[in-house]
Amino acid sequence: MARNSGEKFIRNLVITVLLAILGFSIAALEKNRLIIMDAKISTLKAEYDRVKSENNSIMYKINSILALEKLDKIAKEKNFSVPLENAIINVKE
User: Fold this and answer.
1) Element (H, E) at 17
2) Could you give the CA distance from residue 31 to residue 26 in angstroms, rounded to a whole number?
3) Please, are residues 66 and 73 in contact by the beta-carbon 8 Å criterion?
4) Which of 62, 49, 78, 19 lies closest to 41, judged by CA?
5) Are 89 and 83 in contact (CB under 8 A)?
6) pLDDT digit string (tens) for 9-66?
7) Cα–Cα distance between 77 and 69 in angstroms, integer?
């Protein structure tokens, strides 16, 4: 009987050690996954910032074009003409 309880103790000890090793392995793998995910998130944030900046630049260009179109429309409505490059223009306030 003493031998049987000693074998149970050793078996339980081996199982406990194996479970501890398995737990530490899983924790290490999860930490590695978190590091990889953090790197991917950083890459995606940089890409997002780049796309956002590009979008802002395009929106600025679109708004500039729309403003010029509005000026052209007003000029046509008021029958304004484009002055020559060497013309002297008096601007009244």
Assistant:
1) helix 2-77
2) 9
3) no
4) 49
5) yes
6) 899 999 999 999 999 999 999 999 999 999 999 999 999 999 999 999 999 999 999 9
7) 12
pLDDT computed for residue 93 by the predictor: 65
DSSP codes, 24-67: HHHHHHHHHHHHHHHHHHHHHHHHHHHHHHHHHHHHHHHHHHHH
Q: In this structure, what token pair is assigned to residue 52?
A: 């956002």
Claim: this prediction has a pTM higher than 0.85: no
Go through the chain and tell me how many residues it has.
93
pLDDT for the residue 90: 75
C-alpha span between 46 and 53 (Å, rounded): 11
Distance, CA of 51 to CA of 55 (rounded, Å): 6
Q: What pLDDT score does 58 carry?
A: 96
Q: Tell me the C-alpha to C-alpha distance, in Å, between residue 21 and each of 30, 35, 45, 47.
A: 14, 21, 36, 39
